[in-house]
Amino acid sequence: MQLSTLKRVTAIGGGHGLGRVLSSLRFLKHRLVGVVTTTDNGGATGLLRQSHDCIAWGDIRNCLSQLVEQPLAAQVLNYRFTGEDPLAGHNFGNLLLHTLDQVSARPSDGIRLLSRLLNVDTRLLPMSECPTDLMALTHDNMECHGEILIDSLPQLPRSLKLTNNAVATPEVVRHISKSELVILGPGSFLTSVLPPLLVPQIAHALANTQAYVVFIDNLAHEKGPAGSLCVSEKLRFLEHHVGAPVVDAVLTNFHDASLTIPQLGELTSDKDVYYRHDTGVLLAQLEQLLGHLRTAA
Fold first, then answer.
1. Which helix (H) or strand (E) segment is 171 a member of?
2. What does the pLDDT look like over 76-96, one tens digit per residue?
């Protein structure tokens, strides 16, 4: 099995991590689908959500900026207004996505329109088209609301959930069920990787898919409550929320002897940003891991 022969691949996550994976696999074009976390409540995204009660656009914009071929287009998407401007703190790409949503039937239509304008073949889908926030239940039975506070918790929460009974974007469920490969991560474990898996329909689709499911670990231990977890602990926490063991193999530089599934390391960082994967190496190791899975099958 080679990546280039796969008919459908789904990558799930948020922010920089998902964008890096999608950028590595962009040669798959329309066969590649990115399912993007929409629970961010900080920064420019948080400002827009506070005033307009919308989904979080920041991670979607981030993915688009890593998929466009023109550097200027990426700069425009990521432009942030500053100074005394009434728009100070807002991000142009977020505002553009929100505007397209207002003139479209649904958020996914606006995202698809912008993707076409930018000549991005990879399809990006929000995990849910309904505004929702991430909540954590601590071991003291306290509820912690929002990604910003959850990332600052002193220890791993007991569990996570979404507000508003979030419903999956219908196309997401169909793509997962038809995929040959599903990729989870990398990225902030609690606030980028986990939120889509808390949507019941997505969790059910992931638990029942015939696809190989690969978890990509971070290159460096993240700050926050998930930073101290080994890979097997992350998978147990993930699978507790999904309700079933779903991960078939792991890409990680932190070998975990307690894992019984294939794991492969030797991942390297981008020459400019130490915590971002080198796309060429990531692609090669993912290809090798798929070979291990095929042999084992």
1. helix 170-178
2. 999 999 988 888 989 999 999
